Amino acid sequence: MNPLRDWQKDSLWAVLALLLLLALPLASPSRVVIDFIIRLCAMGLLATSLNMLVGYGGMVSFGHAMFFGSGAYVFALMLQKASVSVPVALLSAVVACAVLAAVIGAICVRLKGIYFSFLTLAFQMLLHSIIITWTSMTGGDQGLTGGIPRPVFWGIDLAQSQHMYVFCCVMAVGGLLAMRLLMQSPFGYTLRMLRDNEDRAAYLGVNVWRVRLYAFVLAGVFAGLGGVVMSLFVSGAFPDFSYWTMSGEAVFMIMMGGIHVFIGPLVGAGLLQIFNDTVTRFTPYHGLALGVVILLFTLGFQRGVTDIFRVLRRPSHEAPSAKETS
Amino acid sequence: MELTALLECLGSVSCIVTQSSTGLIIGALLFLVAAGLTLIFGVLGVINFAHGSFYMLGAYVALTAYRVTDSYALAALAAGLGVGAFAWVFERFFMRRVYQSDVLLQLLVCYAFILILDDVVKIVWGAEFQSMGMPKSFQMPPLFIGGGVVPVFYVYLMLAAGLIALLLWFTLTRTRMGKIIRAAAQNPAMTSALGLNTRLIYALVFSFGGLLAGLAGGLAAPVRSMSPGMGFSILIESFIVTVIGGMGSVSGALLGALLIGMIRSFGSIGFPLFVEGLMFLSMVLILVFKPSGIMGKAQS
């Protein structure tokens, strides 16, 4: 297989998906559909970036929403309090998420399995409590309200719903394509190797800690982009964005959609969103319904799911070689 | 930061006594929850993410039992036994099926139960804050020790927690049951080959861990207000405690719990907005300098 051709194929799919998304409002200009897609853009970025860690890296993070939340807050705060332009706010959100992920990742990625999960969860709760207590800056548990200004940049006016829709779609498709290319790159295969056999990778000269940290930072950045889309959608930011339930939902999304297919988490995000929208219409006890569904999935589908894990653990036929690692 | 307030407090005996008793009480309750968490981890090798929900369930069961029987002791007992029984069912029908699975599945099963239990509590007891109130038998003037105020209830609570800690230590180190549990923790395959029912031991340990969490919830009921979702912060705190003390080590849990209790109590004077940050900071320091925890053996 020629890597260049793979690269072109993925990009072609991305362009096709983008064109389809952009044509959608022409076919069905319904507000509900548009809102659904924008939210899906945000959640799809969150879930897919989490799957870079879980599916490709074997690192089950249970605190991934902290980057989603920080992306949303930094972006919204930069626009609201610092009155910068949209690209600058976007860049600040990305940099902030990268720095945060680098610091937290440096501590967390040394740990394995359940320790890693719990530690990421703990850091997320720390961030959440900071957001709640720092009322003067973040608005506390009320969230960052008052709307965010959207100065026109490069002829793009995010206050217009069409511009907003296109912007979100481009962000999501671009982000997903970037992640796909990363996961198909030598870096992505090194990450898979660490998941399958960490010791062997270390013997081959891979700096395990560094590769995991890079993955953690990258995943944090893309989750932050998801947060940016979400903060544009709700025109603010809320502490729930970085609450543990958000991480839990993201974990369930990728499990439901499948962690062994790149597009799986996006499908899972869509399914969960449809489920949430339907359930909240009928009952206030959304958690109860979601909990039962998760139990059905995790216990009922166990044979199917464990089979997936068995396939994952088996050294894949496309096992990477050391020469590709940096 | 209000360092002057902290220094002022450290300069007066009365303030030290008051804050220490608060710290001890937080630590004692935290120890009960963390001991169950660390015990389950040590023997079964899984972390029970729903442990905080067990604590919450204990508090609510105690509330109802107290309203029915009007006895605090019975309420605490009902909380412990009720949650212990629930933990048994949880282990038997749900957790047991994912021991061999990936962390992802264990996490999701517990996540599902946290969601379900929070909503069940909302349905049964309501979403608003509730409180049990101080039982009549403890409604008496507080003790004054060195000028510091110590409510009588705190003394009883500390005694109860101390007694449980002692009992736990005795059972684990001085009885046949404790020996079997330690054997199952060290080498389950060998233990099972020697004719001991490891599945039963697992169920017992899990349910006993649940019992401790429920008991803690019940014991704490008079001094804590209750709301659905209250278990989550205690879950995070007990996790920090177990990391500091060493995963799987009960004596480490005691040390870590007392440390966190003191940090919370004195930290709230010196760094009112950074108390949680202080707890995390202590955990990070431990992770960087001694990743296995104060009392823990090296991670495998």
Write a concise keyword list for the protein shown above.
heterodimer; A: 326 residues; mainly alpha; ABC transporter involved in vitamin B12 uptake, BtuC; globular; disordered C terminus; B: 300 residues; two-stranded antiparallel sheet; 12 helices; 73% helix
Number of strands of chain B: 2
CATH topology of chain B: ABC transporter involved in vitamin B12 uptake, BtuC
CATH class of chain B: Mainly Alpha
Shape of chain A from CA axes?
A: globular
Low-confidence stretches of chain B: none
Structure characterization notes:
The complex is a heterodimer of chains A (326) and B (300). Chain A is 75% helix and 0% strand. Chain A has 326 residues and is mainly α. Chain A has a single domain (3-20, 30-324), classed as ABC transporter involved in vitamin B12 uptake, BtuC (Orthogonal Bundle). In chain A, helix 7 runs antiparallel to helix 10. With 300 residues, chain B is mainly α. Chain B has a single domain (3-289), classed as Orthogonal Bundle (ABC transporter involved in vitamin B12 uptake, BtuC), CATH 1.10.3470. Chain B has helices at residues 3-10, 13-44, 51-69, 72-93, 103-125, 152-174, 176-186, 188-193, 198-220, 231-245, 250-270, 275-289; strands at 143-145, 148-150. Chain B has a two-stranded antiparallel ribbon. Chain B is globular. The relative contact order of chain B is 0.21. Classes of the chains: A mainly alpha (326), B mainly alpha (300). Chain A binds chain B through residues 54, 60, 62, 107, 110-115, 117-119, 121-123, 125-126, 129-130, 133-134, 244-245, 248, 251-252, 255, 259, 285-288, 290-292, 294-295, 297-299, 302, 305-306, 309, and chain B through 46-47, 49, 94, 97-98, 101-109, 111-116, 118-120, 122-123, 232-233, 236, 239-240, 243, 247, 273, 276-277, 280, 283-284, 287-288, 291, 299.
